[in-house]
UniProtKB/TrEMBL annotation:
UniProt-recorded Gene Ontology molecular function terms: oxo-acid-lyase activity
Pfam families, per database record: PEP_mutase
Name of protein: Carboxyvinyl-carboxyphosphonate phosphorylmutase
Classification via InterPro entries: ICL/PEPM (IPR039556), Pyrv/PenolPyrv_kinase-like_dom (IPR015813), Pyrv_kinase-like_dom_sf (IPR040442)
SUPFAM superfamilies named among the record's database cross-references: Phosphoenolpyruvate/pyruvate domain
Signal peptide from the UniProt entry: none
Organism: Pollutimonas thiosulfatoxidans
CDD domains, per the entry: ICL_PEPM
């Protein structure tokens, strides 16, 4: 079993090496286990997907710190790949931010994402987002950096200022958050290739790009993103959008035909899925203790 310390060190080293990292979004233990076996360098716990799968609610500040820590720590415990987890706004004031960072670090995560939206926050590719003063977010980042036990626990600073205040303000905020101690910089929702190029080349720290299919930001190839200078690309919605379509197709077949025969060729092998979920250990245990 890989320790949390080893995961964090591995991610730090990978970020320092050439090439761009691609992080798939995980939102429940099935997606976490599936992504973990694929060979990614890092996984991303999506707030949107986690809140939707766990509570059946929109990503609009309705999930609590306890809700999110519960899921994040389960993902970290059940996987070998480093995970960066969405920490929303830190769930309150400066004391809450410190508590959140300590909780996520103790929970085994490799990093936390904190954003400068007003509470209650909203998904970064939906309307109606407002940001707090930059000076207030600088304090949050400083507190987050002070609260962590290890510098290998990464702090991702996100600004949502592009949508409401413009790109220049977003870039200015990122420089301030970088100076305050952020390790990875994240300007949410650039709306053109030109804006993406400007963001990627503006900083001397790793820059993250968030790709949401159907969102505001153009979906480009890995080669294009890497050439711009991005060090990390997260795909928070790809998996749950794929799952939604697959579920719709499967349920429609059951409703229309009363059978799964029409989608049988699109189903994961049952025995392989059972092994993915850890049944091999159960079978081995039963075999070892058969005489008992």
């Amino acid at each position: 079993m890989t320790t949390a310390t080893e995961k964090r060190q591995r991610l730090r080293e990978r970020l320092a090496a050439p090439g761009m990292l691609t992080a798939p979004g995980i939102f429940d233990m099935i997606s976490a286990r599936m992504a973990d076996r694929m060979g990614f360098d890092v996984l991303y716990m999506t707030g949107y997907g986690t809140v939707a799968s766990y509570l059946g609610l929109p990503d609009a500040g309705l999930a609590t710190y306890t809700d999110m820590l519960n899921r994040a720590s389960a993902f970290a415990l059940g996987t070998q790949t480093p995970i960066i987890a969405d920490g929303d706004t830190g769930y309150g004031g400066l004391l809450n931010v410190a508590h959140t960072v300590k909780g996520y670090e103790a929970g085994g995560l490799a990093g936390i994402q904190l954003e400068d939206q007003e509470f209650p926050k909203k998904c970064g590719h939906t309307p109606g987002r407002r940001v707090i003063p930059a000076s207030d977010m600088v304090k949050k980042i400083r507190v987050a950096a002070e609260a962590r036990n290890s510098d290998d626990f990464l702090i991702v600073a996100r600004t949502d200022a592009r949508t409401s205040l413009g790109l220049d303000e977003a870039l200015s905020r990122m420089h301030a958050y970088s100076e305050a101690g952020a390790d990875i910089l994240f300007v949410e929702s650039p709306e053109s290739v030109q804006e993406m190029e400007q963001i990627a080349g503006a900083f001397d720290k790793p820059v993250l790009i968030n790709i949401v299919e159907g969102g505001k930001t153009p979906v480009l190839s890995r080669e294009q993103l890497q050439a711009m200078g991005f060090r990390l690309a997260i795909y928070p919605g790809t998996a749950f959008l794929a799952m939604g379509k697959a579920l719709e197709d499967a349920y429609s077949a059951l409703l229309q035909d009363g059978s799964s025969a029409a989608v049988a060729d699109r189903l994961y092998d049952f025995e392989s899925f059972s092994r993915l979920m850890g049944f091999q250990a159960v079978w081995d245990f039963d075999k070892a203790h058969a005489d008992d």
